[in-house]
Amino acid sequence: MTRPLLAVDAPSLYFRAFHGIPEKAAQTEGGEPVNAIRGFLDMIAQLVRTRRPDRLVCALDADWRPAWRVELVPSYKAHRVAHGAVEEVPASLERQVPVLLEVLAAVGIPAFGVPGYEADDVLGTLAATQAAPVEVVSGDRDLFQLVDDARGTRLLYCGRGVAKLEDADEALVQAKYGVPARFYADFAAMRGDASDGLPGVAGVGEKTAARLIERYGGIAEILAALDDPASGFAPGVRTKLDAGREYLSRALPVCLVALDVKLPDFEPALPREPRDPEALLALAERWNLAGSARRLVDALAG
């Protein structure tokens, strides 16, 4: 069996690690928290052991709230703005991210973002351009849209943690949400997503959105059907969709993950030994990461 590329949503995992491990349980001798770093490294080690990839890439948010998405839907992630264009991130997590990136570089795991795009868009492009199979690792539901059995793309959804992964193929997405994976973005735009500041169409919830997609297809087909008096919409639903027509035309591009981002050059092959063992050792000693670093190195060597 061909071994997969593991495409990791790094912010999704390090936020989960940060909130899942108490700061006091993972500190340096000087009391500096390293809970996000330790948790992230242990998650990657577990994924490598259990999924047996031969390639591994971590995607980053070079732009967590791209201007082109905000221009389409101004409320997009607005509730998570600290000031200006800066995301509200706990200070003790923010200080750990540069150290985590140094560790990944010393190990030899590529981690990058692309200006103007979110980690989701990097993951989407990896899924679209890299040799199959591709397993995307994230706790972000938006990435269900990437699931494609024919192409060999799965989502390892870690909304409940890496230990309780949902290994999502097209059947799982259909069973979970009542829509094909290829229409998940249409579904999310109609239903709305409070975590991303997307209001959805007023009065259209998950069940109605799923029924509309089942009957008509995606948003383009639904809006086209609105112009046909014989299309069979219930009067109340037609009124709601008519009122939300402009929102839907703007929200769908926001919800769709980019598949054609220009990626930097990178080497995805799984590093069987650390690229810079001396740097890794120094980082492990400085930041009290010896156990997590060893577990990751052992998993990669295996």
From TrEMBL:
UniProt xrefs under Gene3D superfamilies: 5' to 3' exonuclease, C-terminal subdomain (1.10.150.20), 5'-nuclease (3.40.50.1010)
Gene Ontology terms for molecular function: 5'-3' exonuclease activity; 5'-flap endonuclease activity; DNA binding
Record has DNA-binding as a keyword: yes
Any Pfam family: 5_3_exonuc_N
UniProtKB keywords: DNA-binding, Exonuclease, Hydrolase, Nuclease
Transmembrane segments: none
Limits of the 5'-3' exonuclease domain: 3-269
BP-aspect Gene Ontology terms: DNA replication, Okazaki fragment processing
Record keyword Cytoplasm present: no
InterPro entries: 5-3_exonucl_a-hlix_arch_N, 5-3_exonuclease, 5-3_exonuclease_C_sf, DNA_polI_H3TH, FEN, HhH2, PIN-like_dom_sf
Function: 5'-3' exonuclease acting preferentially on double-stranded DNA.
Name of this chain's protein: 5'-3' exonuclease
